[in-house]
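Bit of a strange request maybe. I'm writing a small parser for structure token strings and I need a real example to test against, not something I typed by hand. Could someone generate the tokens for this chain?
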Amino acid sequence: MGKPLLPDDIRHRVPPGQYLTTKFPVLSYGPTPRFDPAKWDFRVFGLVEEELRFTYEEFRALPQSKQVSDFHCVTSWSRLDNLWEGVSVTELMKRVRLKPEARFVLAHCDGGYTTNLPLNEFLDDDVILAHRHDGRDLEPDHGWPLRLVVPKLYAWKSAKWLRALQFTDVDCRGFWEVRGYHNHADPWKEERYSFQEDYED
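Reply from user aminoacidic:
Good idea to test on real output. This should exercise your parser:
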């Protein structure tokens, strides 16, 4: 039996090779980190005029935003209309003074996970540092207390357990990107694996 056909009104929202689910599957490398609010902090460093460090209380006191977006996993499932709540990247960047040579971002997470993004895509107005999903605090397995959400790219770029952002002038591949995943990860182009990359650029 084949997969059910998508209704016309949502077909345009589902990238090629994806199927819809209303569940929120858990996919992680390694154990779920333990969270201690007294020890947790969030850092911004690299090519910035001044490094920033927020305690948990300071970060949660930042102005909050909500946004609704679709979520596409490289393992082929998509979940539509996710409500995320947290600190928008637009809001965070009001406090960050980038050096002119900054062109990329490397997200650092608990457990040693990293993922990389071009600066222009990190600065999209739908990118958010989220602590709530669909009206509830994130489950620990889904990234509590903080998850980077980058809706336009495959979900491994939406890094769980986010602890720091490093701004760089070179593109430093992250955890999955050095293990054979595509460096860019556009679901509409099915950029799943590194062998698909155009090395002539």
